[in-house]
Amino acid sequence: MRLSTIGYLGSSFALSVEGTALKPKPNTCHKLVSLFGNKVSLPSSNEYALIAPENWSETAQLTPTCLVEPTSAQEVAQILAVLVKDGTQFAVRGGGHMPVPRAANIDKGVLISLDEMNTMQLAQNNRIAQLGPGLRWHEVYEWISAFGLGVSGGRYAPVGVPGYLLGGGINFFGSRFGWSSNMVSNYEIVLANSTIVNANAQTNSDLFWALKGGSSNYGIVTRFDIKTFPLGQVYGGLTIFPPQNLDDLVNAAASFSVPGGGSDDVDASYNPSWQINVATGGLTLLSWCLHVGSDPSPAAFANFTRIPTLSTTNQVWANIANATAASNTDAFGGRTQRQLFWSSGLQPDRESVFLANKTFFEEIAKTPQLKTVRGLTLTATPQMLSKAWLNAARASGGDPMDLEPGNGIIVFLIGSSWEDAADDAIVNEFSKRCAAAIEKKSKAKGLDYPFIYINDAGPSQKPFELYGKGKSIKKMKTIRDRYDPQQVFQKLLPGGFKLG
């Protein structure tokens, strides 16, 4: 086990977090400046103005007291030691794509930005890619494609590596490998007491398991070692369909979700969405897909390719970097809108897709005040995870989600994008109510699947309570108490989803 201990341990560590009032000391940022110089940015600096608002959603663009950009695990450990000693609250940001307001930013605290920790290297005869937590997936794909390799990473190029992997990770290759986190072979992580350890199947194996979906509850991961696999040509891209073909797209999605409908092709990933501009009623229908290999017309996508298109980038690409480049745009990674996710779990059944789609539009119709929300678009996305996916997850050694394979699961995402903070409550309430209606109606028909995908969860949802049908959380808390007995990552890191 690699172990490095930084100062500020012992009794002072315990005293700093035991009290109920965890008020930051005003000189914490000055201490960090004295230790790290220009790696620390204060609100008066140009660097702060550039770096602080890098979160994808405006709802998460907050005003930290200062921000610090470490370049190594050792610096992360030193920073954490200062914060713990001073009792200063903080946030940690990788890609900053989670729209939950304080998940990757903070007001009146220290923001640790991992942007400068962006190293990439191959190890173990190219079987392992070692990735820094400051990377976005487009950087990883551009680098690794040059070696004729792939990794099980994000479907959208601007998404960051760390939060995505710590939330499990829905990916293009799940029917072969499971969640993206199931392909992680080792985590280098800074614990609450500023020790740097490795967590893998042999060392700290309980922590290794917990990190495969445990989010930010255990420490700050400073390197992800993820398994590679040979990957050359792929077919796929972004398609826009005519708005009058909504029923065709919903039908195709419903067919794809069931065994034999396409989602059980281990080389296939299809992500359809329908989006409504609430003020005008205008629809945008789109899909994002990938199929491994050079087949220009995969049978798994037949129900979708029968639908007329307005535009498409679908073709056979030389590598995954080229195939996913279309998502490295403001449409997927722009930082000028307020964003919100809300998630539900459904059984993989045609009726599940129809029920969720009908409920989505019914709830919009029941909420006329949504028309007053400037720039509001609402999106429904059924994400199909096959039986093979969930079997692969278990075969890899398992994870806290611990989903029963059955015939798979549909992760149904409700996405919102709007302009003004004054409308936050309206949009949040609609999303919460819509997800609740889908859950209620699906339960009544035996079509619910009790699971909330944490990377698509709404701010008040409780994903951990549903992991393993409620059986995982006790084990997760036990592991948390072993590695963070003072609950630093519950108290001093207040944002994100907590174990409680």
TrEMBL record:
One example GO MF annotation: FAD binding
Keywords: FAD, Flavoprotein, Oxidoreductase
Organism per entry: Podospora appendiculata
PANTHER family the UniProt entry points to: BINDING OXIDOREDUCTASE, PUTATIVE (AFU_ORTHOLOGUE AFUA_1G17690)-RELATED, FAD-BINDING PCMH-TYPE DOMAIN-CONTAINING PROTEIN-RELATED
Protein family: Belongs to the oxygen-dependent FAD-linked oxidoreductase family.
Domain FAD-binding PCMH-type: 60-231
Name recorded for this polypeptide: FAD-binding PCMH-type domain-containing protein
Statement: the UniProt record of this protein carries the keyword Nucleus: no
